[in-house]
Fold this protein.
Amino acid sequence: MAKWNVEDQGTQYTIEYKRGFNGGKVIVNGSEQKVKSQNAFLNLIDFPIRLKEKALNVVVIGNKADLAVNGIYLGSNQPYVPVSKAPGWSWAFVVVSLVIGWLFAGVFGLCLGILGSMFYVKSSLSLHQTINRRVVSCFIVFFIISIVQIVFGLAANYWINTL
């Protein structure tokens, strides 16, 4: 659960995000709104809230939630970037990482792929790094996760065959 307090024209607002299966709830001063993830494998939410003068966005990537107020994230002080603006290369890393994980290491590999996917999407939306640096950091994480997935899959297969 994440909770923020925002003031707009002298009125205090409490915004909460409660995680649930395939999404969660955004609560503004006690008024609940169900939200769904934009992705089947990764908890990915970008929920807009309009107050009197302020524009808010509750953004959730994986298990990390942050609130953007007038285009700035409260948690990181970085500029808000809509989740829908994640570049295609980050989704390519997500798909390949999930496929490699599932094919080589089953559920364990899929879980590693999901962890990597959270990094790929979050890193691709980060504006404090150049695009080249974002791609290289995603590739390094992808390479490490893929090696772990493949080694685990081969070791598990060898262990099962020796039984």
User: Anything to note?
Assistant: The chain has a mean pLDDT of 91. The domain at 2-84 is CATH 2.40.128 (Lipocalin). The helical segments are 88-124, 131-161.
